[in-house]
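BUG: 3D viewer hangs when loading the predicted structure for this chain

Environment: internal workstation, default settings.
Expected: structure renders.
Actual: progress bar stalls at 90%.

Input used:
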Amino acid sequence: MADEATCIETPTIFRRYTVADGNTIPIGTMLRLTTPNTAVAHSGDAQVFAGIAWEEKTADDGITEITAALNGMWDITDGGAGFTVGAILALDGTANEVRPAIAAELLTGAALGKALETAAGDGVARVAIGQMI
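Structure tokens produced before the viewer hung:
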């Protein structure tokens, strides 16, 4: 995978999710939520954000849970459209990239945090995960 998020300020809120034993999930991977209480690597647009992988998951290692960070400051890659400081962000259509959220995503759990820096197309910017104010 590419464009994994880089932790700048250590998170303090974490959640455990179920994962498939056959999945490989690198540290820093943006995760999406599926049912029941399952996380998989983000792979498409407008998916519900589940957190950022805090530990590595290797395929077929017998482990079926993963810890995800739900807050903290992270350097994250822009999906190409760019965004300005203060923008509320959501998962982009490309794995591990973000874009400005649309209004409906604020209601569906797809928003993930607030931009603390402006980003130009495919640039990296600081994002406060779990912060909307």
